[in-house]
Predict the structure.
Amino acid sequence: MDRKIQRKTASKSVDTAPPRSGGQAAMTTKDDIEREVSATLSGLDQKTALAARPDFDARLFARLEQGNSRRRSRFTSFWRLPVLVPAAVAVMLALNIAAAVVVFGKTDQRVTPRQQAMAALAEEFEMNSISTFLDVN
Amino acid sequence: MDKDTLDRLRAGESGAFRDLLAAYRDKVVSTCFRFLRNREDAEEAALDVFMEVHRSLSSFREEAELSTWIFRIAVTKSLDLLRRKKRKKRFDALLGVRTAAVEMESLPAAEEAGPEQALEARERSRILQDSIDGLVENQRIAITLSRIEGLDARKIAEVLGTTAPAVDALLHRAKENLKKKLSRYYARTAPKEPNDGP
């Protein structure tokens, strides 16, 4: 094509142009170049679109499905790791023990010997705090 | 179209994604092709674009139009692939690996009167695309997007994250640079006049 343009340009300047001086020849070449440039730049206005191949949608949906199943299998394979189940059991046990220590430990701390003695006396005389309070008033 | 499609997509309506695909498939493939100039790569990038769109639809915050968002993803994916290919090419060259040269394709020219005109139009399209490839990145993106139907300066500005007047200036500079590049090209290929030389 370059050769073709060259040929075209050459034939235009040789065949159709009248005899001229060197300056005129250069001018014609410049005009030819400008003509070629503007013809090529006019291609910018062409909004030609390339159509996707007919199997494009099928490929896309296959990939989306592949991606989904990979994500699903990644989730399930996470629980298939051999270390995970014993680790999860150990964590549950540790949490239970910690909770038991916190709850029972605190109860023991709250009951002082004096409180224990008061509770025993109240039980012996079948008293409770509400009735005592009401009797006094 | 955008708003309606988006509502249907979010409602999980079956067929909404197919409609979106039908509306944007060719435009996205063409956009990717204009950057990558190879059909295989363009379709590969376009597949990536639609997978990303499908994955990220829930996080799309409608700050931009749906079309603008899709084109932004298309530009990013195409440029990423282009950079990866260039990096691989450089790495292969460094290792002395000979890779098969990928032929740069050009978009089919519009219907011409005859085969000669069609060939000429195709060749002009190739020359133009070569010149566009030689532009700096933001000018190349702006001019490539301006060739997509329905993408005006405002939408291009949204894709590039700039303003419409800035895009106009960018397009003007890009066209001036293209003119210079093409003039140099045709001056090189023009035949020497017998009286031209010193």
Q: What stands out?
A: Chain A touches chain B at residues 1-2, 4-6, 9-10, 13, 21-22, 25-26, 28-29, 32-34, 36-37, 39-41, 43-44, 46-53, 56-57, 59-60, 63-64, 67 (CB under 8 Å). Chain A has two domains: 2-41, 56-136.
